[in-house]
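User: Before I run my own analysis I want an independent prediction to cross-check against. Here's the chain; please return only the structure tokens and, at the end, one sentence I can use as a sanity check.
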Amino acid sequence: MTEQHMIQLLQKRGVTIEQISEIVFKLQKPYNSQLTEKDCVDSVLAVLAKREVQYTLYTGIALDELAEKKLLPEPLQSILEADEPLYGVDETLALGIVHVYGMIGLTSFGYLDKEKVGIIRALNDDRASVHVFLDDLVCGLAAAASARIAHQNEHAPDYSGKMRLD
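Assistant: Structure tokens:
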């Protein structure tokens, strides 16, 4: 499995790297005036290069595809077809991606999961396909790529000399 394989797998499911990077740009631009769209694409690709991210994506996408083909055992098949709100395993799986870059990714994930920004909304609203896992995985990818940029933001305020321990 390679980064290129994951890009193709996402594209097959209707998601491009550019769509994910647009979300990252919206999340980080208010905090980084120097941010470019290329920075966001590079960050998404860096997250995708991590093997644990690849495994997570592959697992979630495979479950969505099996559900579309009605190949899952009951009651799991019905749960995924209904996109049962209390299922939660889709969010839990996606959080594995988010935790690669720390707590800031977690808050971004929560925001994206609630607001359904960009391609996330399209995946969530698509009733012709099963995207129970994919919409959350895209949230996770965007949140992790956003957190990666935040951690590398050289224009962020430096508080290193201002800590008081009394």
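Sanity check: The chain has nine helices and no strands.
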